[in-house]
Amino acid sequence: MQMRDIRLYLLLLILVFIFPCTALSQMVPAANGLEVPLTLTFSTSVANPTAVVFHPTFQYYYIIRAGNSAFPLETLSSTGAPLFQTTAGLDTRGMWWNPLTQQVERNLYFNAGWATVDLNGSGYAQSTYTSIFSGQLQPNIQSVGAFDYKTNRILYYDGGSLLHFYDRNSGTSLGTLTLTGSSFANLNINTVIYTGQTGYEVGLLEYVQKKIMLYNINTGAFSGSVPLPSSAPAMGAFRFSYANDLVWLMDSPNATWHGYYIWDVVLPIENFHFEAILQGENALLSWEMESFHDNILEYTVERGEGSGSYIPVYQTKDISTSAYTFRDESLLPGRNDYRIKVHYMNGQEAYSDVKTLWVSTLEEMVQVYPNPVKSVLTLRFSPSPEASVKYILFNETGQEVMEIYQESSIQYTQKEISVAHLSSGIYFLKSGNKSIKIIKE
């Protein structure tokens, strides 16, 4: 990979995955596919690997070789480091992450049906499994399935212009869709990919000219193609997959999957709205996605204190609506920054813009003097036009000794409070979770 391409890819990562954006996005095909500086290598030699799977929670990749239940099934980190090796357990063809069942699933050779891939507590793929359905649930005994998580269907391609659909819930055939608008010569004969990108959901590999052919899953219409680098190891059967928004092609002599990014820089859509307001001592946050995105996995609310670092304060996996609210009752004095982190089913993440709320300290709300005090304590209140404020004076043991009220006002106000009857010692004037130390002489 040339240094210029590496810089371009890193720039793309910054734009797509790191740079905070005020709107979330739909991806469109790039003019040219770009090989990324990430490879997934088997620990042993392989001939016909068929699938790459990405786990969005563990951030692991799973790779498998077809042809025998004793062939390799391996777990790698998000950077391609080997983590765990075992055997397939079943003669596997397609394999995918199912966000609806939260498990890795696969279709099997001939009439063995569909099954899961068990994961241990660390997220490593095991050779054990659970059968989902039995029978030849595919158009050809060698078919490599892909999962359409939006409609809960398994997709297959068996050459020509037909796309085959099977119901994930029942295992029954849902018929075919005729693809149109392109040549169907020199296509990988048994593998299809599902991208999840609207209008470009279906992908086939043209292995002679080395390009990804994209089609609309609703109409079957050809919607574009993305040329791959001339060095791409494109083959006419198997060795083609899609995971984590990357096309994967297998270099069998080196037992290595190479990743290719086929999407353009993310195009913003202006339909994500995020607001944050103060309600008393709490922050009320609301956000809305006007055009509902069914490839969203969950939302996380993150709070920062102005230092650039953020912590999660709320998370929801409920994606049944487009409007959300959250009340943060643990505000800190001073600056509170909020942003919404959006988790996509394919493992990508995006951020909303940042909203800042300022919480006044008690010293900003009220000044007390003299301090130490002997007999009369003066309180000078900052304007509070919206509501009256209650202050409580506690002694050192936490016993309440006095209540003081500030009336709502658009001006500074002042009260003088006799404390001559109080014993000498330390007291605390409190409002909510804020306090001022007062010494009584």
* Largest sheet features: 5 strands, antiparallel
On the 0 to 100 scale, the average pLDDT is 87
How many discrete structural domains? 3
- Cα gyration radius (Å): 30 Å
As a percent range, the share of strand residues is: over 45%
Per CATH, the superfamily of the largest domain is TolB, C-terminal domain
CATH topology of the largest domain: Neuraminidase
Which CATH architecture of the largest domain?
A: 6 Propeller
**SS-derived structural category:** mainly beta
Task: Give the helix level as a range of percent.
Answer: under 10%
Number of strands: 37
Low-confidence stretches: 1-12, 14-24
Ends distance = 76 Å
Tell me the overall shape: elongated
> What's the total helix number?
2
Which CATH top level class of the largest domain fits?
Answer: Mainly Beta
What is the fold's blueprint, element by element?
Elements: H1 3-18, E1 25-26, E2 29-41, E3 49-55, E4 60-65, E5 72-76, E6 82-87, E7 92-98, E8 103-108, E9 114-117, E10 131-133, E11 146-148, E12 153-157, E13 162-167, E14 173-178, E15 193-194, E16 202-206, E17 211-215, E18 222-227, E19 240-243, E20 246-251, E21 256-263, E22 267-268, E23 272-279, E24 282-289, E25 296-304, E26 310-316, E27 323-328, E28 334-344, E29 349-351, E30 355-359, H2 362-365, E31 366-369, E32 376-381, E33 389-395, E34 400-406, E35 413-418, E36 425-431, E37 434-440
Antiparallel strand pairs: 1-22, 2-21, 3-4, 4-5, 5-6, 7-8, 8-9, 9-10, 11-12, 12-13, 13-14, 15-16, 16-17, 17-18, 19-20, 20-21, 23-24, 24-27, 25-26, 25-28, 28-29, 28-30, 31-32, 32-35, 33-34, 33-36, 36-37
